[in-house]
Specification:
- The complex is a heterodimer of chains A (257) and B (318).
- With 257 residues, chain A is mostly helical.
- Helix content of chain A is 77%, strand content 2%.
- Chain A has one domain.
- Chain A has a two-stranded antiparallel ribbon with strand order 1-2.
- In chain A, helix 3 packs antiparallel against helix 5.
- Chain A is globular and about 60 Å long.
- In chain B, helix 3 packs across helix 4 and helix 3 packs parallel to helix 5.
- With 318 residues, chain B is α/β, with parallel strands linked by helices.
- Chain B has two domains: 223 residues, Rossmann fold (3-Layer(aba) Sandwich), CATH 3.40.50.300; 64 residues, Alpha-L RNA-binding motif (Alpha-Beta Plaits).
- Classes of the chains: A mainly alpha (257), B alpha/beta (318).
- Chains A and B meet through helix 1 and helix 6 of A and helix 2 and helix 3 of B.
């Protein structure tokens, strides 16, 4: 397969993925927006006004970057996990497997599809957040880079989950028991400066902490941790997940008998 | 331009043992010439779908060699896949997508640009009688339409080798015949076709060469003509005008009563039917119609599979 054909195969997968989540927009685009609007109203306006400041920022400004990141993470992940597992479940993944499309193109296609939804929802939530809080972007390159890398990383994680899943229960276990606790304990709602000792050290092992802080730095200019370290951490996780996902596809794990 | 001497498919000593230690293929050899219409027959669990799965990369072989138009799948499977189109046994397309989108997307996986893919999709949807349904969710198609959609999808990259796994299963007679005619047309245009089927009439009508596979081994690989020649005995059903209570036997013609107005007789291929009819006339029995009890190939098939079973049992006992 020459490069031009590989490009066509790649764009075909991406187009199909975008078409999928646009076709079911009431399930894919509307719910996260409603959920985030409720977060902004409750944590930002109602409860937030009583909390006062966090890391010397009004609470709504502190929490908004975390909420945007939360929507990017969950939507990137859930798009790939549900699309890939759905294809496995209906066996239409075989359409791709019998074709000459290389595994790395399949991987990239699904990832970019997941990123498109994650970033799309992230953008809608960002527009929504402007209604509740005042922002001026502190660093555009940091904001864009970290949101892209985060979306990439969770798209990869979603694909690995989908490869191993053998039932619809399996695709909800990780989001429920791993992803949600990591997000809630990853500095979205509070500064890790509030923690001490063991709990602070434990929180530093949570990769989402680094993404949320880097994104918050890009938006409002404050962070609890080192930004370069954040990028290194997200880059490292993404690289490892990429090679694991590619290895699983090459091996045909749970895809070819 | 097809070259009848070149091989569309070469399989050497192909074996597959699944993770649960089930030996689906025990070292089979098979050759399909370019332009052939080839049948792969066998009972359930014989190894047909495993063989097809290996050809299209959904099953990983344990050992052996597979070449598709001379390309070894171990050396360049990607190039070999360009030549193969597969119609699987089960519906495996996205039921929420429209037929037109399914075809254009499949073409994209083979690197075919959208304008070319769209033109081809229109062509095959029209040829296979699906054009009126091209823009509806594919889950609303009938079973026969879904099967034709899978044929269109397999043809969208214009493969030189089309592999069909039970393509007419569950399809009504009229539709089956129109699919046969379509497959004959594309075979005439040069596409090599490998077909697995349970309808032996289908194999006899369409295919020039045939392999019978049973318990992971090829038990026969020859032309359909040669296979028919090996048929030593045929069983006929005779419908009688009026009813009888019993029948006198005739030496060499084992006549049995199915019911009071139906007889069954097995005849060796070198025996004359005239003697039988003379005997029945003498007995005052009038025949109004006569038909084969089973498809001719079916009798051979059952005979070979049973023979293979006996040989395996002997080997196990030995």
């Amino acid at each position: 397969m020459d490069n031009q054909k590989k490009w066509i195969a790649f764009t075909t997968i991406v187009r199909r993925e975008i078409r999928r989540f646009m076709r079911i927009w009431p399930q894919t685009l509307v719910p996260p927006v409603i959920t985030m609007a409720l977060y902004f109203v409750i944590f930002g306006k109602l409860v937030g006004s009583r909390i006062g400041e966090m890391s010397s920022l009004p609470y709504i400004q502190f929490v908004a970057p975390g909420l945007i990141m939360m929507s990017v993470i969950t939507n990137s992940y859930s798009n790939v996990v549900s699309s890939f597992f759905g294809s496995k479940f209906q066996s239409n993944i075989e359409e791709l497997l019998v074709s000459p499309t290389p595994n790395w193109i399949i991987l990239l296609g699904y990832i970019v599809g997941g990123m498109a939804r994650g970033l799309g929802v992230g953008l809608i939530v960002t527009i929504l957040s402007v209604y509740f809080a005042d922002f001026s972007l502190y660093s555009v390159p940091v904001t864009i880079a970290i949101v892209l890398m985060t979306s990439l990383m969770f798209s990869l994680a979603g694909l690995i989950n989908a490869i191993f899943a053998s039932s619809f229960d399996d695709i909800s276990i990780i989001p429920t028991f791993v992803l949600t606790p990591l997000i809630y304990l990853g500095g979205v709602f509070y500064s890790i400066e509030l923690l001490t000792g063991f709990w602070k050290s434990l929180t530093l092992l949570n990769p989402i902490l680094y993404m949320v802080n880097a994104f918050r730095y890009g938006m409002v200019g404050i962070t609890d941790i080192n930004i370069a370290g954040s990028f290194a951490m997200v880059g490292l996780f993404s690289a490892v997940l990429f090679f694991v996902a590619l290895w699983l596809l090459e091996k045909g794990s749970r895809l070819r008998s | 331009m097809k070259n009848p001497q070149s091989r569309a498919l070469q399989i050497e000593n192909l074996a597959k043992t699944y993770d649960n230690n089930f030996k689906a293929l025990k070292g089979i050899d098979l050759e399909v010439k370019e332009g052939d219409f080839f049948a792969l027959l066998g009972p359930n669990g014989a190894g047909k779908s495993t063989t097809i799965g290996i050809i299209c990369s959904l099953v990983r072989k344990s050992s052996g060699r597979v070449k598709i138009f001379g390309i070894d799948i171990d050396e360049d499977f990607s190039a070999a896949k360009q030549f193969v189109g597969v119609v699987p046994q089960e519906f495996n397309f996205n039921q929420f997508e429209k037929p037109i989108d399914i075809l254009i997307t499949q073409a994209g996986y083979y690197g075919i640009p959208v304008p070319v893919a769209t033109e081809r999709a229109h062509k095959y949807l029209k040829q296979l009688g699906l054009w009126e349904k091209h823009n509806v969710p594919s889950r609303s198609l009938s079973g026969g339409m879904k099967r034709r959609l899978m044929i269109a999808r397999a043809l969208i990259h214009e493969p030189k080798l089309l592999v069909l796994d039970e393509p007419t299963a569950g399809v009504d007679i009229e539709l089956r015949r129109s699919m046969w005619s379509f497959l004959e047309d594309i075979n005439r245009q040069g596409t090599t076709i490998i077909l697995t089927t349970h309808y032996l009439e289908e194999a006899e009508r369409l295919c020039r060469n045939i392999a019978i596979i049973d318990k992971g081994k090829i038990v026969k690989n020859t032309s359909v003509k040669n296979l028919i020649k090996q048929l030593n005995k045929e069983t006929f059903i005779l419908d009688l005008k009026g009813e009888i209570n019993n029948i006198n036997t005739l030496d060499g013609y084992p006549l049995t009563m199915v019911d009071s107005s139906t007889l069954e007789v097995s005849i060796d291929k070198d025996q004359s039917l005239n003697q039988l009819f003379n005997h029945l006339s003498t007995e005052g029995i009038e025949i109004i119609s006569m038909r084969n009890k089973a498809n001719r190939l079916e009798e051979l098939f059952i005979d070979m599979v049973e023979k293979n079973l006996t040989e395996n049992e002997d080997a196990d006992n030995g």
